[in-house]
Amino acid sequence: MKVDIKIVDNYLCGAKKGNENDFNLLYSYTKDLLYAYALTIVKDRFAAEDAVQETFAKVYKNLGKYIPGTNGLAWLIHIAKNTAIDEKEKRKAVVITDIGGFRASHENAVVSAVYLDYLLEKLTKQERQTIILRLYGECTAKETAVLLKIPVTTAEWRYKTALKKLKSSLGKDGIYNE
Amino acid sequence: MNDFENKVKEALEKEIAKYSPDDVDAVRQAVSEEKNINTKWNKIYVVAACLTFIVLVGSIAGILLKGNGNGSITENSTVSGAGHDDSQDVSQDESQDVSQDESEAEIITLAEKHPELAALPEGYMFSCYTSKELQMDYDIIQYNEKEMPELYFNYIDPVGAMYLGIGNTDCSGLVYVEVTLEKGEHSYIFKIYKNEYMCLTYNADIDGSVEMITEWYKHSPFIWEPTEELFSDKHPDMLGISFKSYDFCIFTDYKRNYKLEVLTEKQAGYIWNSVIDVENIRYIEEPDFDLYKIFLEMEPFYTFGCGNTSNSYNMCLYESGYISFNYIVTEEMGKITVTERYYKKGGFKTEDFISDITFVQKHGDITDNIESIIIDGAHACIDGKAYVMGYNAIVFFNTLTDNMKALYMDIPTENTIYLGNYIEIIITEKDKSTQTVHFYETGFFTLNYQDNNKNNTELYFSGVDINTLTNYLTTDINTFAEKHPDEMLEQTTNQDIPLIGIDDYSLGDREKQEYFYEPYPSNQFYYDVMHSGVRDAIFCSQSDFMREGYFVKFIAQDDNKYLEYVIYENGYIELMFTNDIRACIAGMVDMELEFYYNPVGFDLEDMFGKYIDFYY
Question: Does residue A25 sit at the B interface (CB-CB below 8 Å)?
Fold first, then answer.
């Protein structure tokens, strides 16, 4: 799902002016990407869900601080990132029981879930984020670089390394065959 | 997108759709719950403030009774936190604002969050940097063992500093004091900003990898308490000041960026009534001389001056909200300058003086077509040294105009004087006249262009400090095209340029790379490659060279010359060459080796895709 920065900006501007519907639309439009992004940090589906709720609560409270015409998506991702790190910290004392978890045996698991598990377990945080933004968020290398605040070449290199690593892990375990 | 990428994308879409939250009402509920909690905490704040006051009075009384004149740490830290709940409005970057709000429900101090920092931790090397008058760099001050803990408590105040949350290190505020504690590879760095915030950066072990964590604290060690007396009470005549009968100017003394501007009546009225907000600023009784006063004296933010033939006034506006009001009175002994101090709730920030319009809103045509603009020239002056930039200019331009942040400053730039380091980039767009952009180390930049034969200069603020980019600068003319002008001519290369393959160097197995010996239309190929960024790559040393990622290696050869290029997608180029191949074969000369770097990187697929099947 491609998230258009201009649409995000429109929704944020509308919400800033007090338009509740725009806030709802912003939520529906970006929640999945923010969820996926939060998941790359907390690696737990429930925690990611909480992080997204919390992110939007913060966005709602801070709408007044949003500068129209700027990269609203980068703003949302920045908030989601900090919230997810806080969420992870908060849950450190709690035993995480991820409903997916990393399956020791993936034979009975849904393939899509296994892919996600491998993504969460086999890649570094930075690699996960790049994959999520590039593939799930359909961002270009340049857009990914802006959102992650890294050089374009790094974004591109990280993406390719991540893909390769993922492919190799899935291939080794017989889940993906070319 | 290949089959594998499609599979991953599909899997992600399925999984995310399954678990992603879909209840926006939960957000609203969370917001309203937090509001309730905040109200509750606000009440607790009031009670705590009363208790603090009682304890403070008690401790001061105790100190007096004991006759202990030594400035108590507790005394200092308690005083510092009092009376400034309103300063939450002070400018911070958005992430910090957000983090700030989120932690109000669970107030913890630095000492609680990091018990190891409740007192000056043992075994750490203590260094303290304070900002030097009008300089961006710091003076290192050496302290003895007795002074260290005292300063630590004075500056850091572990029991008074309130944790706000994590954030990034972007902060446009100026640093008063920087305290560093180091032990081996572990360090704590405290930066105390003049806007009543402090950030703590330390390295922590997270999931087996070391990450730098930055936490923000509300911290007010340098506070003077304003009285209830208003500016208007002391100077009722100044309230109805006639903007017609005075000249107004504003002098910016932000870091080393001096700027004097004459204001129009409208602008003066706006700054006087809306930014300074003279009706609401409160008088501060002159405190005794102390160190903190010196800090405030050193770094005024803006100076607003007004005067005519009989009177002159000026106000130094500090980012923290303090105002120094100076005027001249004539007494028997002659003219004397009177200084009064005031405080404005919320402080001052750059945005107060500028509009909400961004660079991209005013010049979207430039930023939208960034790839099509031509850099006609670029040079820099950093610490008195001249630099030139090749292809880097576009990187600078992109970074420094930073579309997300660059704000248009709606103030005239006539009579503007800039000192200090700068980068100048001259650009042209198709069918447009030349535009010149000057970037300054203070995060300001100007755009000069012609419109209807009229010269226009616009001022912007992006917050990007050019000094952080000096690694990309070079003092000599050192681009590939400049060092190898002959190689840039198409006709000097051989008709057949064999491509020698592509592989992933990270596998560490260059021997197994595939080879392609098919002939290619060399001139066009060579020309394309050279103009895909190779010509603009900057000469670099072997120690900077990084062999990583994918690369393409190819050879260009004619009767005399031999050139072997290894082009890495991370932007580095390894060039092995000889200008006399016969002498080289005969062992009379060695091959030469040079390294280049283009920070933009190389899109190998784009450059070589026509000739090679890529198998990433």
Answer: no
